[in-house]
Amino acid sequence: MTHRYTVTATPIGAAVAVFTPEDALIALGTAEDPMWVVESVARELRGSLEATGDDVAGLGAQLGEYFDGDRRAFDVEIDWSLVTGFARSALQAVAEIPYGQTASYGEVAEIAGRPRAARAVGTACRFTPITLVVPAHRVIRSDGSLGEYGGNEDVKRLLLELEGAPVR
Questions:
Q1: Helix axis angle, 118-126 relative to 85-94, nearest 10°?
Q2: Over the stretch 38-94, which tens digit does the pLDDT of each residue have?
Q3: Computed over its alpha carbons, how large is the radius of gyration of the chain?
Q4: Of 14, 42, 128, 162, whose CB count within 10 A is highest?
């Protein structure tokens, strides 16, 4: 069996979710052109992906509930195999930031076991293969400013305001 992908429309673009044959989420990206995400993940996995109309692991419904303000956490198994080393530790720490709260890059670095690695946390967030479910948008600068999210501060602001997080 091969990796499958689904596409769900969201207020921040098409959410392309890629699942392992065991229905674990291995990648989730948003883009105006969903095929860009599909092709990028296929290259990373060194194979092809199969489109499916199924709502694998119920993630499409969960994304809808999240953007409607009715879901605070995602209930999907994550396959971390596309992330290694400290980036994996950092993103696993990011995954623990509660809905409606934020943490600085430095705080995440400390939780991940490398207190002086704030920039490495930023890099991990920037290149995470799993957005939204791993809430990199909840990681902000130590001065309280937002920073970017996928190259777009407005999207980060929208997500944090949706969650009711304090935003400056």
A1: 80
A2: 999 999 999 999 999 999 999 999 999 999 999 999 999 999 999 999 999 999 999
A3: 15
A4: 128
- Secondary structure of residue 66 in the 3-state scheme: helix
| pLDDT of 77 | 98
Q: Please state the pTM of the whole predicted model.
A: 0.94
Q: Show the tokens assigned to 60.
A: 């499409």
Q: How far is CA 25 from the centre of its chain?
A: 11
Q: Give residue 26's pLDDT.
A: 98
Rounded CA gap, 118 and 162, in Å?
26
Task: Judge whether residue 150 has pLDDT over 80.
Answer: no
Alpha-carbon distance of 140 to 136, in angstroms, equals: 9
Strand ranges inside the chain, DSSP E: 4-10, 13-19, 25-31, 50-51, 103-104, 139-140
Q: What is the pLDDT of residue 166?
A: 86
**CA distance between the termini of the chain:** 47
Residues 6+ apart with CB under 8 A from 95: 78, 133, 134, 135
